[in-house]
Amino acid sequence: MRGKAGSAKTIIFLCIGCFVAGTIFTGQMWSSGPANHEDHVLLPLKRDCDHKRKLIEGKPGDVMEEVSNTHQAIKSLDKTVATLEMELKAARTSQSGGKHLRQRASSNYNLQKAFVVIGINTAFSSKKRRDSIRQTWLPKGNEVKELEREKGIVIRFMIGHSSTEGGILDKGIDAEEAEHKDFLRLDHVEGYHELSSKTRLFFSTVVSMWDADFYVKVDDDIHLNLGMLVSTLAKYRSRPRVYIGCMKSGPVLYQKGVKYHEAEHWKFGEEGNKYFRHATGQLYAISKDLATYISINWPILHRYANEDVSLGSWLLGLEVEHVDERSMCCGTPPDCDWKARTGNVCVASFDWSCSGICKSVERMKDIHKACGEGDGAVWNVDL
Question: Which residues cross the membrane (predicted)?
Answer without folding.
Answer: 12-30
